[in-house]
Q: What sequence folds into this?
């Protein structure tokens, strides 16, 4: 909570005007930081209200500046929202410059209320709220310049725009922005906008976990906007029309940077660095680019040609990709430095299966496999002979992918054995559901304890039933074996998919790069620099197994860190970090206006029938049609949130706020 | 079929239809500028607003886009509706006071002048031309310039693509505010639009020698309906 002169945040008015600061009532629901990027916040305006911390701020000028930012984001297609705000801007500018008339306040009120009530989408009505608050609670600030016919000194402002979907996206993509472009049939521009923060739109358009959709405002009304499918639509439009992306010419001549790993993080960093003019070489131990997207995501979710296309675009920017080259085996960090690379980015992912420790596991029996290795082998084209029955141990996405892959290889009977229940399953429901439809069986609350063998072959697993106890460190209920509940599951193959970890064996020979207790590379949270200066790391090898979009976001940020490091030797705070904490503190999801929003059904891309899917590795989901994509784009409520902070530079010696 | 109440009358409407469709069915007049029965709804003029009452709350919604839902209560002429229409009308009139169509609509609503002053702009961004070009002509040459983060665009507008435009003048025909005008001068058609002037070469009739239609439009029709390449050598008056 904050102690401020005035707040109407979230509709709760706290008015301390005329009181001594010691007597201020605090605004309970408001947690507004009074410092922002080295500046003191004197006032704040956004969709949910008005906050004044220092009465020096000129309310009228602030309302004008705020509304100008709003106007840039309004779709401009509705008479009331666009024209209403346009006229309000003219009136506000007049008053702020000492040219207002008595009639103006009445007109502003009328217009503001009209915008709130009758604009087409939800953006202008929510955005106008704090301007109406200035009229309701700071009317005298309007009356004064109108009466004196004098303007006041202008303040300095900072703005930030976000939306619930953008805020949870690790790469902070302008999601309402590209949806709007798709709605206006500007598909090429939509893709250009996507590429500003996400260089792998074809891949993420298919396989992103879509945190954005989970946070879409439409969840409370009907179902979320199909954001991922829209991204794929924009990307596939480019492919289908035979177009190639165009990029602004960059001034070359910047230093050389080595990137270890051609996965999403490595590709994203390379893409950004190449656009900045750096000469980038990527080294990867695999025979093709893509990292975990290549060897971890099966072709029925992400066809191979897609990966090639995305990495080709990055190659065309001048990035060299050297394949079949492993750090620690074929190259070393010292060698790279000696070869003239001025910065190194380690993005080697998490490709090591977690050790499965049950009786007979590591004894060389035929028919035992590690999930990550199994997927890698299949995805790289190794022939695997299908048998009758497969057991997959684990409940994550790797386990699901292994199971669905086994079906496609021709296994007749595929069972996942998971030690907890469906609720605790880390595998995403949108993967688990299709897997079950295809015929995968899931044995909940059980785990193998011993591999059963005959000769040198696996014939099954002895399992034990589990029950759930108290929650463990992960917050999920701990599975406890039920004594005497052992049973046998016959199998010709058992795949362990109980987790992945980074393979950091390249650090073995006394490298100065520190690691964590979790077996990941330790980096500085801000800069992504490791304990060795000039060596950066990000993606799964830092976080442990995470998502595509988190890896891409890490790559984007590493590129900026490397650029700052090579340009000036120091890395400064990212504005988006402070901004993120600002939006978090003020509570992005709450909104004062709750009008009626018509329900509309989500457009879903076509899918192969489950019975056909298992016959091949063909892509299950197709692309939205143009008609469906535009219809889906029309469902976006444009929940942009414009935030305006009136600020003053903090003078030396008073940085305590 | 869904059943809803409009101005205290129970009305049956087809699933997937809009409030506007339902009111037309029972003869309730709703003013509208950006609505056209042959086009998808735009929801942008805000003149067709009605009051919707659902789940204990009331809100203004455009009749042309809001779906007819089971159990919905609609008021087409409440005080709230009348006030909202007045503001929308006055705003449109302020932007384009010299449009005969807007003046006519204003008279219908009992408004003789606007309370606002602003620089006159011919295009009021109703989107009728955008939808006509896309849905009727099938060319999709007109589009809104999208707003958005980092675009720093304070003045939204429409943009006509010279590459795509065939010079057919359907946009000029549908435009309610004369923001798009067409003029044939000798062998040239000049299309004046908010994003600039476009010129098209006109086809000369083999028989009477009259310049009668843009070559680009005729080529488009020939290709679209698969006609012989000489199908338009003569103007309609000189064809047998």
A:
């Amino acid at each position: 909570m904050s102690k401020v002169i005035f707040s109407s945040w979230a509709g709760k008015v706290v008015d301390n005007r005329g009181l001594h600061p010691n007597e201020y009532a605090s605004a309970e629901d408001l947690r507004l930081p009074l410092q922002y990027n080295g500046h003191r916040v004197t006032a704040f305006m956004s969709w949910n209200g008005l906050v004044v911390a220092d009465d020096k701020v000129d309310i009228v000028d602030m309302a004008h500046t705020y509304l100008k930012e709003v106007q840039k984001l309004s779709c401009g297609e509705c008479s009331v929202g666009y024209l209403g705000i346009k006229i309000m801007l003219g009136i506000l500018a007049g008053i702020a410059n000492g040219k207002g008339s008595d009639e103006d306040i009445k007109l502003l009120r009328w217009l503001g209320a009209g915008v709130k009530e009758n604009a087409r989408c939800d953006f202008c009505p929510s955005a106008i709220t704090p301007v109406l608050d200035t009229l309701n609670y700071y009317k005298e600030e309007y009356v004064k310049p109108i009466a004196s016919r004098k303007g006041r000194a202008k303040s300095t402002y900072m703005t930030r725009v976000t939306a619930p979907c953008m805020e949870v996206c690790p790469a902070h993509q302008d999601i309402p922005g590209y949806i709007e472009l798709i709605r206006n049939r500007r598909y090429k521009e939509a893709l250009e906008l996507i590429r500003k923060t996400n260089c792998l739109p074809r891949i993420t358009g298919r396989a992103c976990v879509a945190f954005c959709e989970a946070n879409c405002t439409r969840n409370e009304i009907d179902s979320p906007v199909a954001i991922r499918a829209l991204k794929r639509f924009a990307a596939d439009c480019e492919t289908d029309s035979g177009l190639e992306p165009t990029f602004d010419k960059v001034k070359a001549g910047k230093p050389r940077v080595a990137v270890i790993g051609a996965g999403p993080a490595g590709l994203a960093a390379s893409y950004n660095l190449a656009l900045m003019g750096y000469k980038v070489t990527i080294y990867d131990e695999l025979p093709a680019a893509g990292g975990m997207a290549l060897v971890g995501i099966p072709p029925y979710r992400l066809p191979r040609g897609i990966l090639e296309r995305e990495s080709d675009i990055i190659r065309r920017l001048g990035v060299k990709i050297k394949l079949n080259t492993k750090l620690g085996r074929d190259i070393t960090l010292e060698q790279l430095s000696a070869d003239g690379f001025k910065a190194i980015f380690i993005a080697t992912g998490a490709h090591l299966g977690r050790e499965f420790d049950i009786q007979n596991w590591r004894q060389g029996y035929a028919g035992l496999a590690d999930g990550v290795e199994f997927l890698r082998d299949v995805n790289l084209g190794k022939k695997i002979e299908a048998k009758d029955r497969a057991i997959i141990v684990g409940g994550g996405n790797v386990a699901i992918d292994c199971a669905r892959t086994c079906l496609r290889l021709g296994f007749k009977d595929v069972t996942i054995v998971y030690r907890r229940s469906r609720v605790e399953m880390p595998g995403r429901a949108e993967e688990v559901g299709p897997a079950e439809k295809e015929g995968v069986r899931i044995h909940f609350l059980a785990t193998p304890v011993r591999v059963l063998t005959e000769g040198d072959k696996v014939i099954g697993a002895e399992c034990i039933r589990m029950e759930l106890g108290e929650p463990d460190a992960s917050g999920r209920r701990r599975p406890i074996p039920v004594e005497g509940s052992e049973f046998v599951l016959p199998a010709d193959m058992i795949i362990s998919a109980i987790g992945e970890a980074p393979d950091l064996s390249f650090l073995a020979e006394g490298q100065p790069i520190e690691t964590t207790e979790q077996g990941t590379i330790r980096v500085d949270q801000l800069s992504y620099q490791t304990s060795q200066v000039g060596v950066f790391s990000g993606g799964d090898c830092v976080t442990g197994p995470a998502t595509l979009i988190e890896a891409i976001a890490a790559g984007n940020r590493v590129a900026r860190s490397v650029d700052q490091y090579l340009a000036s030797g120091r890395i400064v705070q990212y504005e988006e970090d402070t901004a993120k904490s600002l939006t978090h503190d003020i509570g992005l999801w709450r909104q004062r206006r709750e009008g009626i929003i018509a329900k509309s059904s989500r457009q879903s891309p076509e899918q192969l029938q489950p019975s056909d899917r298992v016959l091949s590795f063909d892509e299950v989901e197709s692309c939205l049609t143009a008609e469906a994509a535009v219809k889906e784009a029309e469902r976006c409520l444009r929940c942009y949130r414009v935030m305006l902070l009136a600020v003053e530079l903090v003078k030396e010696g008073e940085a305590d706020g | 079929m869904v059943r809803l109440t409009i101005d205290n009358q129970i009305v049956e409407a087809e699933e997937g239809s809009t409030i506007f469709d339902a009111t037309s069915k029972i003869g309730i007049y709703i003013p509208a500028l950006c609505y056209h029965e042959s086009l998808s709804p735009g929801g942008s003029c805000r003149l067709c607003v009605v009051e919707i009452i659902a789940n204990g709350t009331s809100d203004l919604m455009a009749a042309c886009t809001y779906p007819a839902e089971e159990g919905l209560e609609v008021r087409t002429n409440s005080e709230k509706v009348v006030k909202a229409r007045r503001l929308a009308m006055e705003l449109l009139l302020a932007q384009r006071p010299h449009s005969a169509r807007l003046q006519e609509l204003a008279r219908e609503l009992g408004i003789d002048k606007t309370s606002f002053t602003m620089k006159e702009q011919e295009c009021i961004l109703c989107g009728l031309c955008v939808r006509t070009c896309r849905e009727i002509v099938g060319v999709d040459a007109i589009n809104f310039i999208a707003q958005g983060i980092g675009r720093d665009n304070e003045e939204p507008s429409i943009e006509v693509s010279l590459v795509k435009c065939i010079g057919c003048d359907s946009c000029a025909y549908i435009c309610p505010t004369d923001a798009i005008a067409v003029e044939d001068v000798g062998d040239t058609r000049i299309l004046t639009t908010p994003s600039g002037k476009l010129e098209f070469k006109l086809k000369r009739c083999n028989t009477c020698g009259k310049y009668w239609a843009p070559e680009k439009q005729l080529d488009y029709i020939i290709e679209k309906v698969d006609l012989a390449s000489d199908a338009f050598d003569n103007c309609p008056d000189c064809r047998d």
Observations:
- Chain B touches chain A through 49 residues (CB under 8 Å).
- The mean pLDDT of chain B is 94.
- Chain B has six helices and eleven strands.
- Residues 128-238 of chain B form one domain.
